[in-house]
Structures are given as structure tokens and as C-alpha cells.
Specification:
Elements: E1 3-7, H1 10-13, E2 17-21, E3 25-28, E4 34-37, E5 44-48, E6 54-55, H2 56-68, E7 75-78, E8 98-102, E9 109-111, E10 113-118, E11 121-126, E12 136-139, E13 142-143, E14 150-153, E15 158-161, E16 170-174, E17 179-183, E18 191-192, E19 197-199, E20 204-207
Parallel strand pairs: 1-7
Antiparallel strand pairs: 2-5, 3-4, 5-20, 6-19, 7-17, 8-16, 9-15, 10-11, 12-13, 12-16, 14-15, 17-20, 18-19
Length: 210
Amino acid sequence: MGFHEVRFPASLSFGSVGGPQRYTDVVTLANGFEERNTPWAHSRRRYDAGVAMRSLDDIEKLIGFFEARQGQVYGFRWKDWTDFKSSSAKLDPVFTDQVIAIGDDVTPSFQLKKTYWSGQQSYLRPITKPVKGTVVMGLAGEEQQEGIHYEVDETSGIVTFAHPPNEGDEIMAGFEFDVPVRFDTDRIQTSLASFQAGDVPSVPVVEIRV
């Protein structure tokens, strides 16, 4: 599957609508009870960057980006302005934000993850597209130094330590991240609404597995 490590212009994704989607099979039994199951372990996000009015420069930028991705052929990075970091919305990421694993004296590499909590229930989301230069790591409450203690693969979200963390040590992380997506259409329709602005009715994108 083709993927370009380039972000959709953040100024154009700002104000987009969208969020996580789940797939659930619901079967109503003869007694009125339901059985609910899902084949998806993870949610899939959908967005629409269409905004009623864009400047002509923005439309030119959008069309250029769409053509360079060849429509749906190549995936790309997307900034979800409502959910793009390990910390809460009003705070900057710090190394204590997320516990992503526990050391075992053997494993040196770990996937970045973000946990979503509601009461006692949680969902663990793999983070595969961290933003370069934003990942901070900690071991057993001590901040580590990138390039000395660990390396980050920004294309996969895998963090590799110089030495496997000690057994029982909490591996912590803070980061910003993008969502891997593709266009969910092979057509972008625009119209000239005025001399200085155009109309982009719909620019749908959908999350992809990478």
C-alpha cells in the first residue's frame, strides 16, 4: 500500500468535521434480547475538510495535494485538531502522559499507544504516525534522552531503547501524532463563488491501517 510521509495542510484540516467510527453487528433474538459483536479491534476515523468558502490559494493548494496523491492511491498524514497529542487538550505532552508497556529485560522495541478512559473501561489505540521531534520517553519515572537512550521511527511509531528496559519498569511516553488517511473519493469538485474565494463542497478522507 502506497503511503506518502507528508501531512495534509493543517490550515485546511482545521475546522473539518469527523471522528472515530465503529462497526457493530447487532442481532435481535426472538426473545427481544440482542447480541452485539464487532470484527474491528480498533475504530476507524473519517473526516471531511470541506468548508463552504476557501481562498483561491487554498483551493490551489488542495488540488495540488490531491493530484500528488493521485486521488485514493497514496495515503498521507492528517492532523485531527480535536485529538492529536498524548496529553489533555490544554496541556503540552510530557513523558509521563501514557504508560505504553512494562519492561521485561528482553524486549527493546515498543509501539507508541494512547489509552482512552471512561470510568473503569478503556481503549488502547496504537499510534503509528508520531510527529517528528515531539516524542519524549520515560523509564520508571525517569525521563530518557532521544539519540542516547532510545530512537523513534516516525513512520511506524516504534520506539527502540539502546538496552531492553528492566523487568517491571513502566515505559512512559508523551507525543503528538497524525492519523494515517487517504482521500475517500477520486473527485474534487470546486466552483468559483467570487473573485477571491471558491467553494469546496466535500473533501472526505478515511483512516487506513498501516
